């Protein structure tokens, strides 16, 4: 009996243990299934995050690397095609932005070098042309002066002929001086500034072109704001520059018109407190805006008989005085040319030897001349006149 009871207890214990094992097994299976699902979810989430990170990295690389590289490639292609005015967009402050900025700076420097080389070609061509002109006109000019001197000696002391011959001699002498100056462009030219009274000086300059104004039936009026104004400048060379401007104004004006010469002091931010300017106002047709920046370039001219060096030389002389010259169109019609000079300029060398400015092949120079790259002021249609300015 005791044995049966013991056997029943063992069976009951075994049943409990078996039940517990089955429960634990079921729980283990459930836990394993849950872990498997968790691992699957974790794997999928990791793959999704990796994909998102990859896409984001691709976008960032495209924005920070590929796009700037594409801009740089486009910029270099534009530069290679000759468009040195193009600039690549600089965005950000990273290394790529710094590289882009450096490329833009390089393009700007190359453009400036190219402009200087073109200017050297023009100046070289101007030097060659001046030498030829000087060779061809010196003998006729000498003959004119000799005839004028002979007529001057044979005429009455106070006669009108004697006075006109004196003007001819003075004009020929002035022209010879200008001719020598033009020949000097093949060697360094230095200003010789001195203190001058502006009023008497401008009267002398205007007096040199009055015969041309009379011939063209143009009135010249001079107005000096301060008759006692004094300034430091090279009177001879600045005389040349202003005569060029006056000659163009006279030739551009219709018969019966009036050319005004106004000399005033000025005070602008770009100049010292003591400065002065010469304004030449005419009643011609004005200068088209599209060529306003070209009229001071060597060889650019709209005159049938112009050489295109007058206004270029004038700009060079004014720049040598640390000044500025600009050509504007008046609202009432005509042109306004302004020459601004500091009263005590920082004098600069007017020109370097053309040999230092760059040598150009003969064919290249002739091709440039034949393409019509001349300079000068606009002029109405009329018979050719003597142009002492050479512009």
Please render the helix and strand layout as text.
Blueprint (H helix, E strand, L loop, with lengths): L1 H79 L14 H60 L5 H24 L10 E4 H18 L3 E6 L5 E4 L1 H18 L5 E9 L8 E7 L28 H11 L3 E6 L5 E8 L11 H4 L4 H9 L21
Parallel strand pairs: 2-4
Antiparallel strand pairs: 1-3, 4-5, 5-7, 6-7
Helix pairs in contact: 1-2, 2-3, 2-8, 4-5, 5-6
Radius of gyration, CA atoms, in whole angstroms: 43 Å
Given the helix and strand composition, which structural class is it?
Answer: alpha+beta
Proportion of beta-strand residues = 5-15%
Major sheet: size, sense and barrel closure? 5 strands, mixed
Query: SSE order in H/E notation?
Result: HHHEHEEHEEHEEHH
Strand order, biggest sheet?
2-4-5-7-6
What is the mean pLDDT? 78
End-to-end gap: 147 Å
What oligomerization state is this entry in? single chain
Shape summary: rod-shaped
Q: How many distinct helices?
A: 8
Quick one: how many beta strands?
7
Percent helix among the residues? 55-70%
Report the uncertain regions.
349-391
Architecture overview:
The chain is built from eight helices and seven strands, in the order αααβαββαββαββαα. It is α+β, with helices and mostly antiparallel strands. Strands 2-4-5-7-6 form a five-stranded mixed sheet. The protein is rod-shaped and about 180 Å long.
Could you give a short description of this structure?
The chain has 391 residues and is an alpha+beta fold. The protein has eight helices and seven strands. Helices cover 57% and strands 11% of the residues.
